[in-house]
UniProtKB/TrEMBL annotation, chain A:
UniProt entry keywords in alphabetical sequence: ATP-binding, Cytochrome c-type biogenesis, Hydrolase, Membrane, Nucleotide-binding, Translocase, Transport
Protein name: Cytochrome c biogenesis ATP-binding export protein CcmA
Organism: Pelagimonas phthalicica
Enzyme Commission code(s) on record: 3.6.3.41
Positions of the ABC transporter domain: 3-202
EC main group: hydrolase
Origin organism lineage: Bacteria, Pseudomonadati, Pseudomonadota, Alphaproteobacteria, Rhodobacterales
UniProtKB/TrEMBL annotation, chain B:
One GO molecular-function entry: heme transmembrane transporter activity
UniProt protein name: Heme exporter protein B
Organism: Pelagimonas phthalicica
BP GO terms, sorted: cytochrome c biosynthetic process; cytochrome complex assembly
GO CC aspect terms: plasma membrane
Membrane-protein topology: Multi-pass membrane protein
NCBIfam families cross-referenced by the UniProt entry: ccmB
Annotated keywords: Cell inner membrane, Cell membrane, Cytochrome c-type biogenesis, Membrane, Transmembrane, Transmembrane helix, Transport
Function: Required for the export of heme to the periplasm for the biogenesis of c-type cytochromes.
Cited Pfam families: CcmB
Transmembrane stretches, start-end: 12-37, 43-64, 96-117, 123-150, 157-178, 190-213
Entry similarity comment: Belongs to the CcmB/CycW/HelB family.
Subcellular location: Cell inner membrane
């Protein structure tokens, strides 16, 4: 089942930022969102992940199929790398975290508290969480922030493996990951025209 | 669900988890009150049930803003919301974890601290019963308040102002059970009211908490 977006309009804080979005994402494909800062990429990803309602239009094939990774990694600094990953694995009904640890080169760090990791290592742990969710559609918001070149290559390899296994990935990123399967999608032309909102979102 | 509970309990007892915060506050209140009131055991014995209840309530209030604030700050709340757990389940587990790390320890130490307040002999049983019955309501109502104020910077003040009025019925009937028990009167009426408040809050408030949390995550 593809992820499909029909006539989607999204709003941030009650102000429409993007409208008229139509795209679909088939299994085994990746879609890279491009657009300047503040153009609404994060809002779009949050809407697709189901964290906020769409202003107009609809999203199909999302819901329980989405594994979402935001700017924040959702790590508990007092827990070790293994404990953090195991927790998310259990939440998603999985057991095995060894593939995720290996995929992001975290084996040597497995027993370190997450609080003692560097920014890039934390990011790798945050991304490794995607591999333990077992969900087919990865929705990633700036996944490569604070990663070095080697880690970006690890990440690209993980995405490639995920796509080869029939998954799909939708990501907002500014750097080239070297993924052949990736298509680019520029959100610039879909900028919403200012309009008067009929309802005040605060009272919805 | 179980894994979320285990994680919250583990985080509470690790460094910076705030496990002892409520307990320490409760201890401080009950140690300071006799010093402030003076050495009149008759007066102390009279106010002991009320002081224990107020101390427990404030100790509970102290730790409320941690329920969601930490998960909000590091982004785990967003990730939990997209996880295959129902939001009602998440808030119920959070309330349960709060009760296990704050409410239950308060119930356990309350009789010991009753000695400091020269609680009458008949009161020990009823202070434990009333706190055991009432503290789940404190945690569940507090979770609702925490869900309302999650994401607000320095939301602690607003949280206290929102939650305190909601705590009043629990305090009134809880302290009444303990007072009547200590003085040897029948406790049935306030006990039933307290049980009603507690069970009602546990049954209904998770739905309200989940609804406001969904709105706050937008």
């Amino acid at each position: 089942m593809d992820l499909q977006v029909f006539d989607l309009a999204v709003a941030r804080g009650g102000v429409p930022v993007l409208e008229g979005l139509n795209f679909s994402l088939a299994e085994g494909r990746a879609l890279v969102l491009r657009g300047p800062n503040g153009s609404g990429k994060t809002t779009l990803l949050r809407t697709i992940a189901g964290l906020q309602p769409a202003l107009e239009g609809r999203v199909e094939g999302a819901g329980e199929r989405i594994a979402y990774a935001a700017h924040a990694d959702g790590l508990k600094t007092a827990l070790s790398v293994t404990e953090n990953l195991s927790f998310w694995a259990q939440v998603f009904g999985k057991e095995d975290i060894s593939a995720a640890l290996q995929g992001f080169d975290l084996v040597d760090l497995a027993h370190r508290p997450a609080g003692s990791l560097s920014a890039g290592q934390k990011r790798r742990l945050g991304l490794a969480r995607l591999m333990v969710t077992g969900r087919p559609v990865w929705v990633l918001d700036e996944p490569t922030v604070s990663l070095d070149a080697a880690s970006v290559a690890l990440f690209a390899e993980a995405v490639r493996g995920h796509l080869a296994a029939g998954g799909a990935a939708l990501m907002a990123t500014h750097i080239d990951l070297g993924l052949d399967e990736a298509e680019l999608f520029d959100v610039g032309p879909y900028k919403a025209k200012p309009r008067v909102s009929a309802q005040d979102e605060a009272f919805l | 669900m179980i894994s979320l509970l285990m994680r919250d309990l583990r985080l509470a007892v690790r460094a910076g988890g705030g496990f002892g915060l409520g307990l320490a506050f409760f201890l401080i209140v009950t140690v300071l009150v006799p010093l402030g009131v003076g050495p009149e055991t008759g007066l102390l014995a009279k106010i002991a049930p009320g002081i224990l209840w107020i101390g427990a309530l404030l100790a509970c209030l102290l730790s409320l803003d941690r329920i969601f604030a930490l998960d909000w700050e590091d982004g785990s709340l967003d990730l939990l919301a997209t996880a295959p757990l129902p939001m009602e389940g998440i808030v119920s587990i959070k309330a349960l974890a709060h009760w296990l790390t704050t409410g239950l320890p308060l119930v356990i130490v309350a009789p010991g601290l009753g000695v400091l307040l020269s609680l009458p002999q008949g009161g020990y049983f009823w202070i434990v019963v009333s706190l055991l019955l009432g503290s789940p309501a404190l945690s569940v109502i507090g979770t609702f308040g925490a869900a309302l104020t999650v994401g607000l910077k320095r939301g602690g003040l607003l949280l206290s102002l929102l939650v305190l009025p909601l705590y009043v019925p629990t305090l009134v009937f809880g302290a009444e059970v303990a007072r009547r028990g200590a003085e040897g009167f029948a406790v049935q009426t306030p006990l039933l009211m307290l049980a009603g408040i507690s069970f009602g809050a546990v049954a209904l408030l998770p739905f309200a908490s989940a609804a406001v949390l969904r709105i706050n995550l937008r």
